């Protein structure tokens, strides 16, 4: 049946307010307007960021909202003026736009498009209206892509065509988790061969950092997590050693200092906590260590640390979706994946039907998963 130009009714998971579990509802998804694309989502991962949305700690989210931002799907229809994709194309929605026109997009040294949610609201489409209605109420978009809906509408700056051969229930990980972690090591830190790295937080993103450090030729890769169940997978993907801070009486940064002599060359914070960010910075080599912030701390929380940590030459930098300009990079990453250059599939601990999204979040909260893929 041709659905183009028509409202589609389908299932979506809605966060009605912060602190409440998701509920699966029937939503009406309006057709795409000019420069918009409607995508049938085939698979979506659950990222730590979606959990921050449920708890209310992620910045600039308006409720009720349909979260989800690590999806892959097929274009159902396109609005006027869309030239980058056509119905039937396999695509990945981009949680960080690449509009191609703004000051950042025209620079080569940043991927922070000025249309990102941190610069401009993405709770509604660019014309300030929603394409989602549930029980007569307007529902907000998340990062413009809301992949926890079987059909979703996004601006054409936030979608990219990928190789026809790509398995969508695997390559959805390129929409956020894998690209973020792998790029944090290769693009943001630019990890060098023979170096020492410490990764705080061994979830799907942290393990992707481990993979990036390994690919860059780091010789010592130390994984740190308070859940020791994460260590098996971390060692499988390249960690040379794993530490649980709870096993030590002294702070973990002191343990790392002693272990490495002068601190690690690169430390990555991939939890989303201020304490672990300070610990990661303090674990770095005094004179030339680089600390990369990947985790998203609670919105608006002030960071405080002894400025002498920086005075001697350490660097603290942020990494936004691994530093990739997403439209340019994601299709290439997917093609490299199809050539067998890396295996993010090892991150997938569960594949479940979308209807089990609440069970999936329960597994996340119990620390029993790495990446869960939900399929429609
Ligand atoms: P996750 O929940 O799968 O993993 C977090 C891990 O941290 C878990 O294994 C926890 O056990 C572990 N942890 C919790 N507390 C501590 C602690 N005190 N010390 C050590 N480890 C601890 O999340 P994820 O891997 O999907 O995401 C991780 C963070 O990265 C999260 O804050 C998310 O919002 C952020 C993120 N950032 C970007 C970006 O562009 N920078 C993109 C995607 C995700
Ligand atoms: Zn994410
Ligand atoms: Zn831009």
Automatic annotation (TrEMBL):
MF terms in GO: all-trans-retinol dehydrogenase (NAD+) activity; zinc ion binding
CDD domains the UniProt entry points to: alcohol_DH_class_I_II_IV
Single biological process term from Gene Ontology: retinol metabolic process
PROSITE patterns in the record: ADH_ZINC
Record GO cellular component, one term: plasma membrane
Pfam family, one: ADH_zinc_N
Cofactors named for this entry: Zn(2+)
Keyword NAD applies: yes
Annotated ranges, domain Enoyl reductase (ER): 19-374
InterPro entries (alphabetical): ADH-like_C (IPR013149), ADH-like_N (IPR013154), ADH_Zn_CS (IPR002328), ER (IPR020843), GroES-like_sf (IPR011032), NAD(P)-bd_dom_sf (IPR036291)
Highest rank taxon of the organism: Eukaryota
Keywords assigned by UniProt, alphabetized: Acetylation, Metal-binding, NAD, Oxidoreductase, Zinc
Family statement: Belongs to the zinc-containing alcohol dehydrogenase family.
Cited PANTHER family: ALCOHOL DEHYDROGENASE, ALCOHOL DEHYDROGENASE 6 (CLASS V)
Record-given protein name: Alcohol dehydrogenase 7 (class IV), mu or sigma polypeptide
Organism: Salvator merianae
């Amino acid at each position: 049946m041709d659905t183009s130009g028509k409202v589609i009714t389908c299932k979506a998971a809605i966060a009605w307010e912060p602190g409440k579990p998701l509920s699966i509802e029937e939503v009406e998804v309006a057709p795409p307007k000019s420069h918009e694309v409607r995508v049938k989502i085939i698979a979506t991962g659950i990222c730590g960021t979606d959990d921050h949305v449920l708890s209310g700690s992620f910045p600039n989210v308006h409720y009720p909202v349909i979260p989800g931002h690590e999806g892959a799907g097929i274009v159902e229809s396109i609005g006027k003026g869309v030239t980058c994709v056509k119905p039937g194309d396999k695509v990945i929605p981009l949680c960080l736009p690449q509009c191609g026109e703004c000051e950042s997009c025209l620079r080569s040294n940043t991927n922070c498009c000025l249309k990102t949610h941190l610069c401009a609201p993405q709770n509604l489409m660019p014309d300030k209206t929603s394409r989602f209605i549930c029980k007569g109420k307007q529902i907000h978009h998340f990062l413009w892509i809301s992949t926890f809906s079987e059909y979703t509408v996004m601006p054409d700056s936030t979608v990219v065509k990928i190789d026809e051969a790509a398995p969508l229930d695997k390559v959805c990980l390129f929409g956020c988790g894998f690209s973020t972690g792998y790029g944090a090591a290769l693009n943001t830190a630019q990890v060098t061969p023979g170096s020492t790295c410490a990764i705080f937080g061994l979830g799907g993103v942290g393990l992707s950092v481990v993979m990036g450090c390994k690919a860059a030729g780091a010789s010592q890769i130390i994984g740190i997590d308070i859940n020791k169940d994460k260590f098996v997978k971390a060692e499988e993907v390249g960690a040379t050693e794993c530490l649980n801070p709870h096993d030590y009486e002294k702070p973990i940064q002191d343990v790392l200092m002693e272990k490495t002599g002068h601190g690690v060359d690169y430390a990555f914070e991939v939890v989303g906590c201020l304490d672990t960010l300070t610990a990661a910075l303090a674990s770095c080599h005094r004179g030339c260590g680089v600390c990369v912030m990947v985790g998203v701390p609670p919105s608006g929380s002030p960071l405080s640390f002894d400025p002498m940590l920086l005075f001697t030459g350490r660097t603290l930098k942020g990494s936004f979706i691994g530093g990739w300009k997403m439209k340019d990079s994601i299709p290439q990453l997917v093609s490299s994946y199809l050539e067998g250059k890396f295996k993010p599939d090892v991150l997938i601990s569960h594949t479940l039907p979308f209807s089990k999204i609440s069970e999936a979040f329960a597994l996340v909260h119990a620390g029993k998963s790495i990446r869960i893929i939900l399929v429609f």
